[in-house]
Amino acid sequence: MVFSGLSETGSTNTAVEFYTPGSGWSIEYQAGWTPPLYPRLHLLPNGKVFYSGSGRGSRLFDPAAKTWSAVIATTNYGTTRGYGTSVLLPLTPANSYKPRVMIFGGGNPSTATTEIIDLSAATPAWQYGPNMSQPRIQMNATILPSGKVLLTGGSLNDEDTATASLNADLYDPNTNTFSSAGANRFARLYHSNALLLPDATVLLSGGNPQRGNYESRQEVYKPAYLFNSDGSLANRPTISSVSPAGVRYGSTFQVTTAEAADISSIALIRPGSPTHAFDQEQRFVGLSFTAGSGVLNVTAPSDGNLAPPGYYMLFILNSVGVPSVATFVNLSASTNLAPTATITDPISNVTVNPGDSVVFGGSGNDPDGNVVGYSWTFAGGNPGAGSGAAPGSVTYSTPGVFTASLKVTDNEGLASQSATRTVTVSDFSISATPSSRTVTPGASAGYTATIAGINQFSGTVAMTISGLPTGATASFTPDQVLTGGSTTLTVSTSSSTPAGTYQLTIRGTSGPLMRTATVTLVVSGNFSLSATPSSRTIAPAGRTTYTITASPGSSGAIALAISGLPKFATASFNPSTISGSGTSTLTINTNKNVARGMYTLTITGTAGTTVKTTIVTLVIQ
C-alpha cells in the first residue's frame, strides 16, 4: 500500500495504490482528503491501516473496501504535530495483541506532550500521556527488545541547534511513565535517525542543522539492560540456532539456547527504516513459547496483519530482562514445501542371499525448514520398520523381491515422498535324477542332485538326506555345492535292509533357506513263483485258467508275463502284477483254428532286477 508523496505536478498525492508482485500496480483509490507529505500510518492486527498524524484528525483505511473512514478521533493537542513521531506500541500475548498507538512531540515550536489511543476500544479516543523531558521536533522513537520506547533527538525549534533536545527519554508502556536514558552529545535534527541494531544497542546518526551542513558523527546508545547494577556487563542469553530460519504464520519453530529455562520473553522486531521523524517499518511482536531442555518451542504470529511478511530480528530476554544478540528470521505466508528423502546406503538396489543383512542409512532435506523425523519400512526384512537416519542392519531370510522405503517429516508435520531401494533375495532349486533306483539288499544306488540358482544366488548349499531304510547309508560327493553345480548321492544298502519302496528326501540348506527334491529307492527281495494246476486240457475254441502264486519276499510289484502260447491262443493275468505276495488268475483262450498238441508255457515274474519263472502245460485235443 502506497499513500501520499508528491504527484507528477508537485502536489501532494491523495490516492492510495497497491502493488502486487507479478501483476504490478492497482488503480488509484482517491482518499477524498489531503494527507501530510509523510503520513504516520500503522497496520493494525485487524488488517486496517490507522492514520495517526501529523494532522489532528485520525482515520482508518480498509484495504478490502479500498476506502477511508471519516475522522474517528481527534488529538487533544491544539495544533498539528508536524515532524513529531508515532509508534505502534508492542503487540504481545500479555496484552492480547491490543493495538495502541502513541504520538510524541511535534509542532514548531514543538511540544513535550504525548498522546495515546486504544484502537481496540469501541469508541477510540486520544488521551494525554506523560510528558517527555524536553519538547521535540524532528525526533526519533525506537522500540527496544524490552518493549520500552527510546526517545532521542529533536529540538524546540525546527533545525535549531541552540534549542536541541539532547536528553534521551525511555517510555515504559506497562507503567505509562518516562525515565531518563541519559543524554546524547550531538544535536540530531532534520534528517537524523535512530536505528535498533541486532546487538540490542541503538545507533544515532545524521542530522543537518542547516541545509547542506550535515552531522557526520555517530553515536551508539547502550541501554541499561546490558549492564549489572555495579556497571559491569550483564551475562546475555545466547541463541545457538533458529530452526527453521524461514518461519510460516501460525507454525511452531525452535530456538536453541542453553538458557532456555531462564527465558522470560521473546521479541520479534522489524528492522527499522526511519526518515523524517517516523520509522515506517517499526513493529514489535511478542511471541508465545514453551521451554524445553535447551530449546524454546515458539509459536509464530498468526498472520500478516499482526506481523507483515519479511525479515525480523528475534531477541530472547532472560528473567532479569537482559536481551540476546538478535538472530534474523524470515516470516512468510508461503505454503510449506515438502522435504525430500534420500537413501544413501545402500547406494543402489541390491541382491542378497537368504539370511544376509543389508545396512541402511538415509538423509532428509527441507528447503524451508528442517527434518525432524525418519520413518523406514522394510518389507520382507527383520526388523520390518525403523526410525532415525541410520536404522542399521536388516536381515532378509525369505526369497523374493522386496521394497525398502524411507519417508522424512519436516518440523510442520509434512511428509516427503518415499525414497526406495529394491532388495532382491535370491533363491535356489534342487533337482535329482534318476527319479527311481532298484537294488537288492547289499547293493548300492547312485543319483545326481543339481543346484540351480534363482535371482543371482551365490551361496553354498549343504546337502543332507532323510528317509533311508534300516541298514542303509548315504553320502554326497561333494557334500556342499555352489550355484550351478551338482553332487553325486550314493545310497548303500546292507544285507539286512528290508525289501520295500522308500521315498528319499534330498535337502539343500543355505542359511535359513532349505529346498528339497525326492527320489525313490526300491529294495527288492527274493520271492518264489508257482502255478496250479500244473496242466490243463481244452478243446479248440476253449478256455481255461491257472492260479499264479507269489510267495513273500518281494517288496515291490511283481510284473507277470507268459511265453510259449500256440498260435491262435491269448492269455491275460488278473491282476497283471502282484504286490509283494499274493495270487493272480491266468486265463487262456483259444479259437477253433488252434493246432492240437501239448504246449509248455513259461510264466515269468519280475520285481526290479529279480526274475522268477514257473512252468505249466497246456494240452489242446
Protein topology:
Blueprint: E1 2-3, E2 15-17, E3 19-20, E4 24-25, E5 29-30, E6 40-43, E7 49-53, E8 57-62, E9 67-68, E10 73-74, E11 85-88, E12 100-104, E13 114-118, E14 126-128, E15 137-143, E16 149-155, E17 167-172, E18 177-183, E19 192-196, E20 202-206, E21 219-221, E22 241-243, E23 246-248, E24 252-256, E25 263-269, E26 274-275, E27 278-279, E28 284-286, E29 289-291, E30 295-299, E31 310-318, E32 327-332, E33 340-345, E34 350-352, E35 356-365, E36 371-378, E37 381-382, E38 385-387, E39 392-396, E40 400-410, E41 419-425, E42 427-433, E43 436-439, E44 444-454, E45 460-466, E46 473-477, E47 480-482, E48 486-492, E49 500-510, E50 513-523, E51 529-532, E52 535-538, E53 543-550, E54 557-563, E55 569-574, E56 577-579, E57 582-590, E58 597-607, E59 610-620
Parallel strand pairs: 23-32, 34-41, 43-50, 52-59
Antiparallel strand pairs: 1-2, 2-5, 3-4, 6-7, 7-8, 8-9, 8-10, 11-12, 12-13, 13-14, 15-16, 16-17, 17-18, 19-20, 20-21, 22-24, 24-30, 25-28, 25-31, 26-27, 29-30, 31-32, 33-35, 35-39, 36-38, 36-40, 37-39, 40-41, 42-44, 44-48, 45-47, 45-49, 46-48, 49-50, 51-53, 53-57, 54-56, 54-58, 55-57, 58-59
Overview of this structure, please?
The chain is mainly beta and 621 residues long. The protein has five domains: 225 residues, Methylamine Dehydrogenase, Chain H; 92 residues, Immunoglobulins (Immunoglobulin-like); 76 residues, Immunoglobulins (Immunoglobulin-like, Sandwich); 97 residues, Immunoglobulins (Immunoglobulin-like); 92 residues, Immunoglobulin-like (Sandwich), CATH 2.60.40.2310.
